[in-house]
Write a structure and sequence with these properties.
Helices cover 37% and strands 31% of the residues. With 402 residues, it is an alpha+beta fold.
């Protein structure tokens, strides 16, 4: 059975290569080819695959299976001899993130006694899951500082396949998941990990390790981080964001937090003032409506079409129902006209039945309790019709007149 020679093991910096197609197949409706040798890294070990092109034909996916590396491409490649080219920006980004993960995982192990149980290299950020439910901010900062000290030290990073005898002499951070063809990636004097991924030649090329978020996930802690180019891009994004805020507040960047606090305090004060004014408006509106209410025996009927938000109209209705003998029939105009019917506790009237009948007569629907009901009608004209119907029924129920 032929196998693919994995050139990325010997030289992860190899960008172009030549190879020969030794097998062809169709994968999810797209052509796929296996080569005798390739520099394309297949998805695995938490690291996404490389992309690029084979003889100018874009490579969409790379998969390892039974010793072969399959390249899923966008179209047919007629010749067996191919020239491959790796999408270098993507490859080097993965190298930075993956080596950064090794360093950060070892830093957490040494500083926090927290072991990495999972790793994922994402499109925008990467994560490691630690076997600790929580870590304090000081410990997380200390682990990040330890990782960046290794970056600053520019330690050599090497990788080699080792035999069983050699493996027993290596202080691996955790046991390997495979039992043969074990490849150990070493950050000189700092970390030894069984890994098949692509890595930078020394830790200085990681550029920077920056933890951007932590999230508790059951008994584990997920740590999101950025390395190298991703960290620089994120710094540029944050610089633009803070610079924009500083400009809008007309303050220096260091004064942005104080400016935000000041604005938040002003907003809270304004909201309190507005709430007080709104409460006063509601009370005065309820008093005016009550003063103008129609008397019907021992009842007083308030029929009101409100051009206000539904919640504001509901609060006015709640104030009105506190009056003895009150029957409150409220229509709320707008794109979706609403009805609110309520009554005082000493009024013998079923608001739910009254609203349902009035809404149905106007082409709408609704209902509720005997002391509070809500519904809706399709048009403003229907709103007036529903209120007129409810008002007539209320008069008839109490005074015997319409």
């Amino acid at each position: 059975m032929p196998k693919t020679e994995c050139l990325y093991y010997g030289n992860p910096y190899l960008r172009r290569f030549t190879g020969r197609i030794i097998a062809r197949q169709v994968s999810d409706g797209k052509p796929a080819v296996a080569l005798d040798r390739t520099a394309f890294y297949p998805t695995g070990g938490g690291q996404p695959c490389d992309t690029g092109a084979l003889s100018g034909v874009p490579v969409l996916d790379v998969v390892a299976a039974d010793g072969l590396i399959w390249h899923v491409v966008t179209g047919d490649i007629p010749d067996d001899e191919v020239e491959g080219e790796i999408a270098w920006v993507r490859r080097f980004d993965h190298m930075q993130q993956h080596t950064g993960q090794h360093v950060l995982s070892q830093a957490f192990a040494r500083v926090c006694d927290a072991e990495t149980v999972a790793f994922h290299l994402g499109a925008s950020s990467s994560t490691i899951d630690l076997d600790r439910a929580a870590l304090g901010a000081e410990l997380i900062e200390a682990a990040e500082a330890a990782a960046n000290a290794v970056v600053d030290a520019a330690l050599p990073v090497t990788a080699a396949f080792v035999g069983e005898t050699q493996l027993s002499q290596i202080p691996l951070r955790k046991p390997p998941k495979v039992t043969e063809d074990i490849r150990v990636v070493q950050v000189e004097g700092f970390d030894w990990s069984a890994c098949g991924g692509t890595h930078v030649a020394n830790t200085a090329q990681i550029g920077l390790v920056k933890i951007v978020a932590t999230e508790r996930r059951g008994a584990e802690l997920r740590v999101s981080f950025l390395c190298g180019g991703r960290a620089r891009a994120d710094y540029a994004r944050l610089q633009l964001l803070v610079g924009g805020l500083a400009s809008r507040f007309s303050v220096g960047q260091d004064d942005v937090p104080a400016a935000v606090d000041r604005l938040a305090n002003e907003h809270r004060a304004a909201r309190k003032d507005l709430a007080d004014l709104e409460a006063q408006w509601m009370e005065s509106t309820a008093a005016l409506l009550w003063a103008a209410a129609e008397t019907c025996g021992t009842w007083r009927i308030v029929a009101w079409i409100a051009g206000h938000p539904l919640e504001r109209a509901k609060r006015v209705a709640q104030l009105l129902r506190a009056y003895s003998g009150a029957v409150v029939l409220v229509g709320v105009s707008g794109d979706r006209p609403q009805l609110i019917f309520t009554r005082a506790d000493d009024v013998d009237l079923d608001a739910g039945v009254l609203l349902r009948e009035a809404a149905t007569a106007a082409g709408g629907r609704g209902g509720g309790r005997s002391d509070w009901a809500q519904g809706g009608v399709p048009t403003p004209d229907a709103l007036g019709l529903a209120l007129s119907s409810a008002l007539a029924k209320t008069r008839a129920a109490k005074c015997g007149t319409i």
